[in-house]
Design a protein that fits this description.
Length: 259
């Protein structure tokens, strides 16, 4: 099975792309809703719980771990790879950088994400030196998505407020550095215009997972009995799961780390 984890429900946008590339593969999803958001937490906290979740997923017989959280990818991916050297661990940042390098023509790149992701400068550290990188934290985007306000005047105003500095910088490529943000893609495109390349890291990540499994001849358990665990009752799950997966997700509420 493929283990996917996030701080909440946003990682369902990653599950969506995994299903596209590997439609027969079974997944176990864990959203740490009891401790979200990770985007405002410190590095030590994120590493601690990312490790706990990875250990838990491995006990569930997952052969591959997907970090479907940009903040965890930024703060904890290198740490997890050292802690679990024999486990294939995929994160959001490296695939997005590769896709960005192919997409940009003027080497002026925008990055939007949670405060934690932006503070980590994880994307900037991996982007080629010749590129001009402009980062913007968008803390209101996650609650807007989780409220289901995908096509609301408030969301339109938030998009304009956060993205206007990037638009003024003349970027030609924008990285959606949070798993919630693909659900705002239409609003973002409406404001920036369709000439801007919008990079959804989940798409590139899913392709990398598929390629790795094929090259290494790793067989993943097939089936549709996917399990969606959350450490606390997920807010607005029905609406978000339908937006991401076009179906209702039945949550299993379990906090293996309580206490």
């Amino acid at each position: 099975m493929i283990g996917i984890f996030d701080s909440g429900v946003g990682g369902l946008t990653v599950a969506k792309e995994i299903f596209k590339e590997l439609p027969d593969s079974q997944i176990i999803y864990f959203g740490d809703t009891a401790r979200l958001p990770y985007g405002t937490k410190g590095a030590d906290f994120v590493k601690k719980y990312s490790k706990k979740i990875t250990e838990w997923l491995l006990k569930k017989h997952c052969k591959v771990i997907v970090i479907a959280c940009n903040t965890s990818s930024a703060w904890a991916s290198d740490y997890l790879k050292k802690e679990f050297p024999n486990v294939p661990i995929f994160e959001m940042i490296s695939p997005a950088i590769k896709a960005t390098a192919l997409a940009t023509k003027n080497n002026r790149i925008g990055i939007i994400g949670t405060p934690g992701t932006i503070r980590s400068k994880a994307y900037e550290k991996k982007i080629q030196n010749s590129a001009k990188v402009f980062s913007q934290a968008c803390p209101l985007f996650v609650p807007l998505v989780e409220e289901g306000l995908l096509n609301d005047k408030i969301t339109t105003e938030a998009v304009k407020r956060y993205l206007s500095p990037l638009k003024e910088k003349g970027i030609d490529t924008l990285i959606l550095g949070c798993t919630h943000y693909p659900l705002l893609k239409k609003e973002i495109e409406k404001y920036l215009g369709k000439k801007i390349n919008i990079i959804n890291p989940a798409e590139s990540l899913a392709k990398e997972v598929k390629k790795y499994l094929e090259m290494n001849k790793i067989k993943i358990k097939k089936g549709s009995a996917h399990q969606f665990f959350f450490s606390d009752e997920p807010y607005n799950l029905e609406k978000i799961s339908k937006a991401c997966l076009n179906k209702k997700v039945i949550p299993i509420i379990k906090d293996p780390f309580n206490g």
